[in-house]
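User:
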Amino acid sequence: MSAPKKVVLAYSGGLDTSIILKWLEIEYGCEVVTFTADLGQGEELEPARAKAELLGIKPENIHIEDVREEFVRDFVFPMFRANAVYEGLYLLGTSIARPLISKRLVEIAAECGADAVAHGATGKGNDQVRFELAAYALNPDIKVIAPWREWDLTSRTRLLEFAEKHQIPVAKDKRGEAPFSVDANLLHTSSEGKVLEDPAIAAPDYVYQRTVSPEDAPNTAEFIEITYEKGDPVAIGGKAHSPAEMLTALNGLGGKHGIGRLDLVEGRFVGMKSRGIYETPGGTIMLEGHRGIESITLDRGAAHLKDELMPKYAELIYNGFWYSPERDMLQALIDESQQFVSGTVRLKLYKGSVQTVGRWSDNSLYSEQHVTFEDDQGAYDQKDAAGFIKINALRLRLLAMRDRRG
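Assistant: Predicted structure:
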């Protein structure tokens, strides 16, 4: 690969990406542009601007953008219409943020005439795959630089030595090894590494950042009502919210009640297993509510087909194929299924759990007249079930007759 002249770096302002910034300038002699996304990670982002300026980046080459609304509206909500969970448990909080970051990296590169983008993902994880598949899907000619796969800074000690040599500020708590690695956005927090690397040992309480312990949650249940329109939550208790406001509000409710904690050993796309501690308070409530409203508005055949396709859809997102034709195809099917998924769900929040306790909709397929144990006024003739059962039993009876002969 020829040396790039200008590189757009996904920049957090932390130690690793600050070292990458300086390494790119030294290794390639290129101009560096930084992009920092406000995805709702809960951190002040202006220090990232100050850090980039301190490292010599021109003010016009520093991009800090609030993309929270786009993140929830165009990425989180479409994914939740599918009820997507990876390996039965994980709500894909890290996975779903990468396509948006990659999208803006490629767009900024086009705007400023850069010929490459760079990220700080390591060669062991999934994020390198997600960043790069998305970048190539959006611009097949873009160069992608992954310093962790190229440099010889293979230990924390060598990283610190590089930082000190090039006058990169190092926070005091970074001089020792960090207890664990954290990634956060408006959907979740993810903690991995160090004290969490032995899956036999319970995670320390201090790992959790957004949720109280269920044991310490309020002793009184809280009931909320979420209104959905075409599969997306739009209001809480009748009060309308934008997508980012909705997830922020649900995070507050879920965190207060200790909802959304997950201790997971997952199968990474690159082949190894890893242990992560995830907190997805608002997303866990949102998923339960969505299934609640689907239960009365979505036809059985459509619902069961969605559930059959969901693991494939979730795997595509986890593995980095958001910008793929197969994900687009599945999304079109999922969105079509949501045309009548509108109504309100009542949820009970209590001690780490969220439970649907009521649901109603103008589009409801639930017929009390048909299902009642009381007099149904002729809505359903129970005698019809005899023929239905006999037809479905025919092949089973033929099999049993054959086996009896044998």
